[in-house]
Design brief:
The chain is α+β, with helices and mostly antiparallel strands. The strands form six sheets. Strands 6-7-13-11-12 form a five-stranded antiparallel beta sheet. The longest helix is centred in the last third of the chain and has 19 residues. The chain is globular and about 55 Å long. The N terminus is likely disordered.
Length: about 300
């Protein structure tokens, strides 16, 4: 996600975007429906990008006008404030996918492609390498941005190149240029102004039945260990040589509630939400967890999710 200082009024930027992108631009749109937690207030202006080219054009327009914006893909790993998001929210629906099969197969996917859907498409073609991603919510863009991972795999080990947009134009970045760490990157750390337009991922030729079986195995493991229902995903990063869920449970907070937000009784690193849940209650629960874990175990938990909006 990227935030910039607002230079134009909401009306001015809405009119500017509507001149260029027509009905793709809407005002005062509730954002909760676009998040996995189903929580959050409205966007002043919401504009939908249906291709990487549209996304690049929208972002360039906003950069040139000095307008604040939030880029939203699958809406996982994010908590939007109850008062919503000022400026512009871009809804990324850029979903072109191109496979290159052969001795060294790979796939290019625009940043709005849902990661789990792409993993299953690879499986149908008998292409291996994304099985770990089949249970991860969110988009390719979010996965590249945050170095998503599961079951021993992550984006840093799968990505060949990322297509990014900077103020200088479109660029191809290597894994090294993204500066990956555990669930982070140069982009997530705010070290550079850029957004992800697409990614080229490395695959391997495999057997469709075997790839599907591995995905089924991971899916069953996920169901057995992580709670159903609406959530932001893992709330906190795992500290070195430990697990955030274990620390939260050790602090006696499994099942704790504030309002209708609750720490899962199945996995303590998940906060379960509902349509009526307030972001303020989720934030209060996050602060309760951080304080209790620090007092109990001496560990200052770091958020994996991002807090945006007001």
């Amino acid at each position: 996600m990227m935030r910039l200082e607002t230079m134009m009024t909401t009306i001015e930027i809405s009119e500017l975007l509507r001149e260029r992108f027509g009905s793709a631009v809407r005002q005062h749109v509730p954002l909760a429906r676009y998040t996995s937690a189903r929580v959050g207030g409205p966007a002043d202006v919401l504009v939908t990008a249906n291709s990487a080219s549209e996304l690049a054009e929208i972002v360039t327009t906003l950069w040139e006008s000095g307008t604040d914006f939030l880029l939203l893909g699958g809406g996982s790993n994010v908590l939007i404030g109850d008062r919503g998001v000022r400026g512009v929210t871009i809804l990324n629906r850029a979903k072109e996918v191109r496979f290159e099969e052969g001795a060294q197969p790979k796939v290019y996917a625009e940043s709005g492609v849902v990661l789990s859907n792409l993993a299953n498409r690879c499986a149908l073609k008998g292409l291996s390498g994304l099985e770990w991603a089949a249970t991860i919510p969110g988009t390719i863009g979010g996965a590249v941005y945050g170095n998503a991972g599961a079951f021993g795999g992550d984006m840093a080990r799968t990505l060949l190149t990322a297509e990014v947009l900077t103020p200088a134009g479109r660029e191809r970045w290597s894994v090294d240029q993204l500066g990956y760490g555990y669930r982070t990157s140069r982009l997530k750390r705010g070290e550079i102004r850029a957004i992800i337009l697409g990614a080229e991922l490395q695959l391997e030729a495999g057997d469709a039945v075997e790839v599907a079986a591995k995905i089924a195995e991971f899916s069953e493991s996920r169901k057995a260990t992580q709670p159903p229902g609406a959530s932001m995903g893992s709330t906190f990063k795992n500290p070195p040589d430990d697990y955030a869920g274990r620390l939260i449970e050790a602090a006696g907070l499994k099942g704790a509630r504030i309002g209708s937000a609750a720490i899962s009784s199945m996995h303590a690193n998940f906060i379960i939400t509902h349509e009526q849940t307030r972001a303020a209650d989720v934030r209060a629960l996050i602060q309760l967890v951080k304080k209790a874990v620090l007092e109990k175990s001496g560990v200052d938990l770091e958020l994996e999710i991002e807090l945006v909006g007001e």
